[in-house]
């Protein structure tokens, strides 16, 4: 498999608690902050939000690809990704819920497209078997 794109991001400072993240092309430049729920200031984005944004965007692309492969015309797509950072006896862990809305299809087709997208999406592949994922697909 040949690489077609590599994202390069440098993080400095305190990492997730007061660090700065900057992509090599300068298009991403942001401060990082612990959320208030974890005792931080909550004044900047955090890694879980960035992961949720990347995965959600990729997942919608995978839904559209799955629809195109099946020659299904969609009227709309929207996703709300919830990434939970948990802490227990085994240390820190992630859990995910993807709430997907697909227009122009019935409920069975929405479920089928969500399952297909979960097989196609590189983010889904990367976390498979490591992160519990719930996908709620709704036809709208």
Percent helix range: 25-40%
Instruction: Note the beta-strand portion.
Output: 25-35%
According to DSSP, the number of beta strands is 6
Which consecutive residue ranges, at least 5 long each, have pLDDT under 50? none
User: What's the overall average pLDDT, rounded?
Assistant: 96
Provide a short characterization of the protein structure.
By secondary structure, this protein is an alpha+beta fold. It contains 3 helices and 6 strands, in the order βββαββααβ.
Topology at a glance:
Layout: E1 9-12, E2 20-23, E3 29-31, H1 47-69, E4 76-88, E5 91-103, H2 107-120, H3 122-127, E6 133-139
Parallel strand pairs: 5-6
Antiparallel strand pairs: 1-2, 2-3, 4-5
Helix pairs in contact: 1-2
Folded structure, characterized:
- The chain is of the alpha+beta class.
- Helix content is 31%, strand content 31%.
- It contains 3 helices and 6 strands.
- It has helices at residues 47-69, 107-120, 122-127, and strands spanning 9-12, 20-23, 29-31, 76-88, 91-103, 133-139.
- The chain has a 3-stranded antiparallel sheet, with no helix packed on it. A 3-stranded mixed sheet has the order 4-5-6.
- Strand 1 (9-12) and strand 2 form a beta hairpin.
- Helix 1 crosses helix 2 (107-120).
- The longest helix has 23 residues, at 47-69.
- It is globular.
- It starts with 8 loop residues before the first strand and ends with a strand.
- The relative contact order is 0.14.
- The model has no long low-confidence stretch (mean pLDDT 96).
